[in-house]
Amino acid sequence: MVLESIISTIGVVSQHTVVPIAREINHCLKYNHNFENLKREVKKLKSAQLRVQHLVDDARNNGEAILEDVIKWLSLVEEASEKVEREILEDEDRARKKCFIGLCPDLKARYQCSKKAKAETRFVASLLDERDGFSTVSHRAAPKGMEAISIRSYDAMPSRTPVLKEIMNALTTADVNMVGVYGMGGMGKTTLVKEAARQAIQEKLFNQVVFATITQTQDIKKIQGQIADQLSLKFDEESECGRAGRLRQRLKQEQKILIILDDLWKSLDLEAVGIPLKDEHEGCKMLVTSREFDVLSCGMDIQKNFPINALSEEETWELFKKMAGDHVEHPDLQSLAIEVAKMCAGLPVAIVTVARALKNKNLSQWKNALRELKRPSPRNFAGVQEDVYAAIELSYNHLEIEEAQDRVHSLVHKLKASGLLLENHSDWQFSMHDAVRDVAISIAFRDCHVFVGGDEVEPKWSAKNMLKKYKEIWLSSNIELLREMEYPQLKFLHVRSEDPSLEISSNICRGMHKLKVLVLTNISLVSLPSPLHFLKNLRTLCLHQSSLGEIADIGELKKLEILSFAKSNIKHLPIQIGQLTKLRMLDLSDCFELDVIPPNIFSNLSMLEELCMGNSFHHWATEGEDNASLVELDHLPHLTNVDIHVLDSHVMSKGMLSKRLERFRIFIGDVWDWDGVYQSLRTLKLRLNTCASHLEHGVLMLLKRTQDLY
């Protein structure tokens, strides 16, 4: 019994003394083995690190998000590898050192280094085990709606601040689920709604904000894709209907979501896209931009709509200066820079891009830029992006008269130099060789669906099925081609008769719903083409050298921009012409019989730019009389080009348009001969029987700007 107790006691003591001592002694005996194990494990760890890093790089290149555990693991591995490699070399050197004058190994150093190596091996092994637990290193990055879309720094403009505030108020109103913003292209609608979205995110008004650009061609699948991408939604369905159902389901999962639909040109079928309506999801709100108020109010039934107008002149100049630099305030440049800034029409996109393009440019470059901006074309001005010209063209949807005519001169000169046009007696006229004409007609017929018909019309050209596809028709005979036929694609029709007694049927325009330009020359027109609803899109009407009957219905052509009665027998200008408020050009040249123009016709033509009355009406009256007065012309803000004859200088108004006129031919006094070539832009002919005091205002101001004086 005593013996058993002694043996038991010895066993317990040996377990707590001998075994641990043997383990510790083992550290000294197996130090080489421990170091080799550590080296092997470190080598395996570095290989694993390299493989994981390759996977991470590939994932990042694919735009995926790296798992936090993987990022932490790579960091630990990097630290461990550097530490172990450094310490292995140091500890191996220590373990090999000897004591007692090099006769015995340093057991203490071996023990410490070997034990440390074994511990490091366990840590490296744990990192390798952790690597084996990675089923993947990344996941698809979930774009956070608008946070994934670049939002440029927003500079609050005084005119924009109240609009932004109203938008934010509308977005927080419980019973408003759709908000609209409208204004012409380049006005800054997109920037404004992105700022509204940024503030909504910052104020945590919505759990999610997504943005989709609609564009003129509404591609439903593309719209669905834009929204889905920002919601990390993958479509398995191919059909629009199937995708719409999946998108609707996903959107309903968001408690509060703002959907921004940018650049709407026409009403959008929200159900077809998959956007839940108010009754389906009260937490879903929409912010929509468009160029047209009617698209938002009528087409989309949006409750709250806010206009974005052009920047004021002060805002325009401040933004322009900021973008172009302080040098624009140099005395030699400032007035020119201000004029360039004004040409941007208060459009932020135009202001920013033009100003940046002209930054640090010299005076001649600024002058050239101003000329180019007056005739917008993306080919004309290197350094200015095409979208700016698009924005400017939308604001100024016409070329300025002077620049447009200069461009015609340039083109005619180039064509003459190339031999395609022949010289004539003036720069305003040209001739064309028959062979060149035939080729030109052939090219126009082949490439542009233009039909030019005379006596030589080929049967295949005049076949009914061929004529229906034409967009432009020029006829000098074979006018019977217009009778009892419809031309659904026709946009331009020019009819010139060799017989002035030829009567044109009033139904010649039947079925020409797309017609924009109608030119009738040397014909007898009893009445205007009817019914007039076929001409609802007509922009230009020229009734030249013709015998005109009843044309009072002309007031119904509300979209008309150019109207010409040149060389026709009109005697009394219909008062209904005053209803053509979009008219930009009125040509009454060589209307020798025109005696009566009722008062207030001209004053109603607020968009009129060009008035041509050479060899025509000259019975100008003073205000309150039965004929038109020159005072009416003073109130036309866009009028820049006039040809007029004034018999009595006393009826001249004080301002007489002198500051706005860019081109004029004004004859004052007795009968003048209007024939001849006038090369200059501003011509004034005077034959006065009065004292100079009457010239103090209107005429005197014209004299200062006249280039040719007779």
Automatic annotation (TrEMBL):
InterPro entries: Apaf_helical (IPR042197), LRR_dom_sf (IPR032675), LRR_R13L4/SHOC2-like (IPR055414), NB-ARC (IPR002182), P-loop_NTPase (IPR027417), Plant_NBS-LRR (IPR050905)
Record GO terms (molecular function): ADP binding; ATP binding
Domain of life of the native organism: Eukaryota
Domain Disease resistance R13L4/SHOC-2-like LRR: from-to ranges: 515-654
SUPFAM superfamilies, per database record: L domain-like, P-loop containing nucleoside triphosphate hydrolases
Keyword Repeat tagged: yes
GO biological process, one term: defense response
Assigned keywords, A-Z: ATP-binding, Nucleotide-binding, Plant defense, Repeat
Domain annotation NB-ARC: ranges: 164-326
Assigned protein family: Belongs to the disease resistance NB-LRR family.
Protein name: Uncharacterized protein
Organism encoding this protein: Populus trichocarpa (Western balsam poplar)
